[in-house]
Amino acid sequence: MLTRKTVNTIFLLGVVVSLAISIFKPIPWPAFALLTASWFFLTLCGSFFIRWNYHMTSLNSNNEINKPQIAITFDDGPHPEYTPKALSLLEKYNAKATFFCIGKNIAKHPELIKEIIRQGHSVGNHTFSHANTFGFFGTSKVTQELNRTNKIVEKLTGLKMTLYRPAFGVTNPSIARAVKNLELNSIGWNVRSLDTTFRNENQVLKRITSKTEEGSIILLHDTSAKSIAVLERLLVFLENRKLESVTVDQLLQIRAYE
């Protein structure tokens, strides 16, 4: 995939070459506009598609795994109604998962974060506010958000999280600097369920099962009845395919906590 550094270098070279040529032969302004638009489009896509690793490196799967394992991950919890249901299903099918939790939700439901860990699942940082404008925060503000969530979990459990899931999957230079400074591992996915969209339960399940293979990281949310229904059917699918759901840190062979 193209990285921000590569695209910026190509863009600057294109500008320099175009300016050099324009000394001898006028270049129509639409050519410069097209060059700028192409740079903007690639940068915009790179910011929203986490698997591009455009602004920063995220771990999206384990393609080198030699075990029949995958990782189910949940974003946006903990939720007082649906997180307990997810935990119950995971226990029923002897599966482990990773919960990327929003700090303000942890503060409201501290007993749930403790129960997630007690049952052997992993937890990760999914910002404190999950604000719609998070992609516009500067490095300092991003750092404050991540530190605030980490401190809440550390106070409740004694664990200092090292896993981070970008809100909305959005990355940019400010987020990249904050993640690097805090020495966090950014975790992406290669199977996006789209369970928060208009798609119905069958469509979401089909999307997941058609893409899941050894080493996959699946993105779900523990925030709706539809997602819980999908989870149960997914766990049956995995059981039939003899695929084990493990925590994302186990799948990637990294540490979830310091």
TrEMBL record:
GO biological process, one term: carbohydrate metabolic process
Keyword rRNA-binding attached: no
Pfam families named in the record: Polysacc_deac_1
One GO location term (cellular component): membrane
Transmembrane annotation, as ranges: 7-24, 30-50
Source species: Maribacter algicola
The keyword Nucleus is assigned to this record: no
Domain of life: Bacteria
Domain NodB homology per the UniProt entry, residue ranges: 68-246
InterPro entries: Glyco_hydro/deAcase_b/a-brl, NODB_dom, Polysacc_deacetylase_ArnD
Name this polypeptide is given: Polysaccharide deacetylase family protein
PANTHER family, per the entry: CHITIN DEACETYLASE 1-RELATED (PTHR10587:SF133), GLYCOSYL TRANSFERASE-RELATED (PTHR10587)
PROSITE patterns reported for this sequence: NODB
UniProt keyword annotations, A-Z: Hydrolase, Membrane, Metal-binding, Transmembrane, Transmembrane helix
GO molecular function: hydrolase activity, acting on carbon-nitrogen (but not peptide) bonds; metal ion binding
